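fold-stage: in
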Amino acid sequence: MADKYILKVTAGPGYDAAHHVTVPVNAAKPVKISSALADVELNVRIRDYGGLPRGSPATSAYFETEPHKANGDQYSICLRFRPKAPSSASSSGADATATEADTKTGISGEDLQFGNDFDHPIRDHLPPGFNTALNIVKWWIDPGLEGDAHADAPYLFGPALSSFNTVYCGEGTLDAEGAGLLFEEGVTTTTTTMTTTRIAVEAVGYVLRNRKTKDVYLVVMFSLYLREDVDEAGSLKIPEAQARKNAAVGRPTSSASSEGEEEEKNGEAARLPDGQKVDVPGDTSIDDVD
């Protein structure tokens, strides 16, 4: 399946792809994204990378540093984020009182969110019981999570301070000849579970935003294209919209997703690995956290 697709990573200050730049995956030099709301420097690393731009390094020296080597991390999104004072009106048209308060106090840790959203349904690509599992995680691990993966415009966001593996206040370290941005404890998220094969069937994007004002500071898009739609130079042979449509048609769906969704609607108790039942409570909010 993975052989049919090629991956491209872009980033910008919002959702409009016209204002995105290509992210050179595994390059040491970070990409700089600037807007009226924030200045961001970004490194994206993926182990065993074979996507665009063509000729990109297959890996990064980052994965040879600890603790990433011991953890077997497969990919990393690392950013240096410097917010700016918002203008008199936020990009979402939030009320003037909220914007005025943000200007004086900065961005609340409760409002800075990191996560995913989509402009198209993904319910047919989800395993059964996904929303039930999400409710368990919200109740048991992170009440700040919010999302609906079965919506027509699905989303999943959590507080950035609990979404990042590490957070560092300061400049951090830039290894310009090797790993790029490095933080002993820094604004970075890593995982040991995502491989290029998984990316081939689950195109994802990441968004850093303000929950209250809806201002968006950074969007990182992982876009899939059929290899036949990309020329040797790495450019699309056809319009972007058509290329995305072609790639979406070939992705497999979960045959059990509708069954799992129906089970969730019936409100069945979720089963833990040891066979015990847990009744999933209603939605929680950040206000429920002590």
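fold-stage: in (second)
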Amino acid sequence: MPYFAKDHNEFLKCFCICCMKKSNDLRCIQTKCNKPGPKQAKNYESLIKRFFWENYSVENSDLPKMLCSNCRKNLVSLEKTDSKRFLFKARPKYEGLNTRVIRGGKCECFICVNGRKNGTETATLPPMVSYETNADIDQSHSNLNLSTTNENLVLCRSCFQQIGKGIKHPCTKLAKQRNLMHIVQSTSPVTKEKILSTTINNLVTHDAKITLNTFGPKKLVVSIGVVEPKTPYFSHSKLKQLQSKLHTSDNKMLEIARFIRVNGGRKSVEPCIVDKLLKIIEKNLFEDTNQGFNFVNSYLSTINLARVPYQGKHRLEGNASNKFLKKLDCFQIYLDEHNIIGGKYMKALRDFSDVVHGCFGKILNPNYSDYIKRFSQSFRDLGSNIPLKVHIVEHHVEEFIVMKGGKFEFFHYKSKDDSIWALYSCRPTLSSSIKKKANV
């Protein structure tokens, strides 16, 4: 009996219309419900038009007219539950299918090309179209299963290659690398970023640069940057610029700063003087800012103090700042034990401690003016910018004391330990009714 090659019409009976897979359980798409009763046959043509491709028609002689059991089950499930689990994410691009017979009596459409391949040859992926957008999908680097679900998907545990009929399985080290790369590339951008950041974080040791191997001869050098800490919304320099533009007094600027802190959080305005001095020490006495931050925290824990975390940052608040100033000798000993020379930074802290206890104590020290001048000079010797609160100490504390006749009994604040409160309170318009403590 002579052998005749199959034509296009015969190959249409070998593939499922939805997943384009050869299967032993293909059934013809039924268009009529011949059997009455609860077990009547489904009209799969209408289900295909509803959930897969609205332009499908059994009358079109160029399209497959078969359905596999898996796709039949998914269509029925979609009809019952509308569950996203059974949604078709993509479909073969049947539009413009060229079934013209060329010389030799062969059709070169993707249906016939895959139909002529035996079980040992890799199936050619048809051009795919997204179900939601009808946009073409790039399948140049894929070996994807075109079925609607992954229930029958089997991957090799060694190389992560899909195992199936007609799919090559070299199971080599290079194949494993490429398969992993294709899996990562098929994920969302957010997933790619998470995988990349986790991998780089595991490779980084103490070096700022790491060298990565590639599929080519050249290696990729990656530099790890340092995350810069968030600066306050309104630094002291910005407040000074705002003051010069609005031509407002220092009292008004203090009210503005307080209003910003109440509504934008405590980190919206640059912090207090003690915290500022500690940050200068961390930045200048240590090679790494994180190292200095951890060193200061280790000392604070020895005197039962801790910086308060807020919006990703840490700071030393009013009462804790005053306690820190009272224990500067302990801090000096701690620096000496770790072979760290405090020098001018410790001098600035001690001078500021003299200002706090000389001007804002129960009894006004007669040498308060000298304390302020010494602190002003020692702070400027650090080479840092002049914060707004240092400016207040330099120019307005003494002015307020003179205006009040050299008496500070006027202040009736609740906490004797809150030294930094006075930096927000030293203004000429204070009245004796102010008794509440302002947190700085």
